[in-house]
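Please decode residue identities from the backbone states below.
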């Protein structure tokens, strides 16, 4: 057989293998891929967002004796106290940010430390996923997450050295590397095994588990607080157990998914396009189609057969990366996915990890101030009830717009398309933030109107760019750069998250109106940048790759 005939034959085999994947009915293998990837995203979101409720408890336990001083005055309305009441950690929420040296920056760093780790993990795992293969890297990120979650839950101060917050931030940083690695790995594997008709739905369903993870964070806090009510009302330092249980819970979904991730097969697309073994890829496609019809989501894959290079393929070297993305048609796609994700995360994380302002406005962050002798003061609180109400408030926010938004997007993404959902979501969020910023003086004093506008914004974050910025990068790049492209896009998002939490977030408590104007402007630019992207609905990965074969 001539070299030309051999290449033609291999191309036909490749096209046939991919056609079978693209045209396959939605089945049990697809369900397994979504569950295995989705459970990881449940753990990712849980670990990232649980910290916003854990930190106030840590501050309360470790800094109350240092920063809570004085007494409540005589004659407080509703208390009828004839003597002063000493202020303690039992009846006052500690003001960590204003008392701890550099408290604003420390609080922001603790919330953003995981995002710094995400940035490294997304780039690192993205590149390694293209160099070493999806299978070799999948599961490694969960091992990192499990180890670092345990470390986070058992964080404590050194006798002479770092305090509990500094130790926790180190563990959270390395936890973030594992979480970051999950983004390109899960997106790439799900995309490359999916059929054309339901690829967007499968990717969106994986990402929608983020909403379930956020919701479970609140539920775990509620359950733990309810179970320890007597102990906490007797001694507020029992909160030390609550935050440790909440952080430690994150290992449960990770442990549950690790076996399935370590045994998932290499994707046929990587086997063909990067390794160059069309025979092995065809064999694997047949196994996928066979498993797709069996109602079993457990692993049943022969791991002994190794793919070997049989035909020459385009490499994923740095030189080839520059050549591919040196073309404007490809560069604009990477610029679009990266910028949209960055813009989205500035506002999304800036709001999500700084929800104390929102909780105050919906009356779930402690009692209102009272007037005593002409001065306004915060009255004594039941510290258990305060943290219980905060947990309830977070659940309300999650149920009101966050969780429904994810799953409505899952239902609509194959009907409407990715670009329309992303553009419309960015624009609705822009309008909501403009309304909040323009009428802040009025809306910030009216619980129901504020909650309505905020809920609409939360809904369209999820049924909009928060989902689509994850989906699109998993579809638009060629196999040899798909994991890298997704990782770079996600890393750009985490740059946005860091800006939102560490640069803009600290201003939120003092000048929320300014922050909302900034977020609104950035959301509008996200809608404009979406125009750089192709619509991926109904197209094969090969059609979208811009590889001139």
């Amino acid at each position: 057989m001539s070299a030309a005939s051999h290449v033609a034959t291999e191309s036909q085999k490749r096209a046939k293998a991919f056609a079978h994947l693209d045209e396959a009915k939605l089945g049990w293998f697809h369900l397994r891929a979504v569950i295995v990837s989705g459970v990881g995203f449940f753990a990712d979101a849980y670990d990232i967002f649980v910290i916003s409720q854990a930190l106030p408890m840590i501050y309360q336990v470790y800094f109350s004796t240092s920063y809570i001083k004085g007494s409540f005055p005589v004659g407080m309305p509703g208390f009828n106290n004839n003597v002063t009441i000493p202020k303690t950690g039992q009846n006052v929420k500690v003001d960590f940010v204003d008392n701890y040296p550099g408290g604003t920056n420390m609080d922001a760093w603790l919330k953003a430390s995981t995002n710094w780790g995400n940035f490294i993990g997304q780039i690192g795992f993205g590149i390694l996923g293209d160099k070493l293969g999806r299978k070799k890297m999948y599961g490694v990120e969960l091992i990192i997450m499990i180890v670092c979650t345990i470390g986070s839950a058992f964080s404590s101060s050194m006798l002479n050295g770092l305090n509990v917050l500094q130790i926790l931030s180190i563990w959270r940083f390395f936890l973030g590397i594992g979480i970051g690695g999950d983004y390109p790995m899960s997106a790439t594997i799900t995309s490359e095994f999916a059929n054309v008709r339901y690829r967007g739905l499968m990717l969106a369903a994986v990402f929608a588990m983020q909403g379930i993870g956020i919701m479970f964070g609140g539920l775990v806090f509620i359950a733990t607080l309810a179970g320890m009510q007597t102990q906490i009302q007797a001694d507020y330092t029992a909160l030390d157990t609550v935050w440790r249980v909440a952080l430690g819970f994150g290992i449960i979904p990770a442990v549950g998914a690790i076996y399935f991730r370590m045994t998932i097969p290499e994707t046929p697309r990587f086997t063909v396009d990067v390794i160059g073994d069309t025979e092995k890829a065809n064999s694997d496609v047949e196994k996928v189609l066979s498993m797709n019809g069996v109602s079993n989501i457990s692993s049943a894959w022969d791991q002994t057969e190794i793919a070997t290079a049989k035909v020459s393929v385009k490499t994923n070297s740095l030189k080839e990366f520059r050549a591919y993305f040196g073309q404007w048609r490809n560069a604009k796609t990477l610029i679009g996915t990266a910028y949209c994700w960055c813009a989205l995360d500035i506002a999304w994380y800036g709001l999500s990890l700084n929800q104390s302002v929102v909780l105050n406005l919906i009356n779930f962050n402690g009692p209102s101030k009272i007037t005593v002798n002409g001065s306004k003061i915060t009255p004594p609180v039941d510290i258990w009830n305060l943290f219980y109400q905060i947990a309830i408030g977070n659940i309300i926010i999650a149920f009101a717009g966050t969780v429904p938004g994810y799953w409505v997007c899952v239902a609509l993404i194959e009907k409407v398309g990715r670009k329309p959902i992303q553009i419309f979501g960015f624009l609705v969020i822009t309008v909501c933030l403009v309304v909040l910023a323009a009428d802040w003086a009025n809306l910030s004093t009216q619980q129901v109107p504020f909650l309505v506008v905020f809920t609409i914004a939360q809904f369209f974050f999820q049924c909009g760019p928060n989902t689509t910025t994850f989906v699109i990068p998993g579809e638009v790049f060629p196999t040899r750069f798909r994991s890298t492209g997704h990782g770079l896009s996600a890393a750009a998002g985490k740059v946005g998250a860091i800006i939102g939490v560490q640069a803009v977030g600290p201003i939120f408590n003092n000048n929320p109106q300014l922050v909302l104007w900034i977020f609104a402007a950035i959301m509008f630019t996200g809608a404009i940048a979406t125009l750089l992207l192709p619509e991926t609905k109904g197209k094969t990965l090969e059609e979208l790759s811009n590889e001139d074969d």
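Observation: The longest helix spans residues 383-416.
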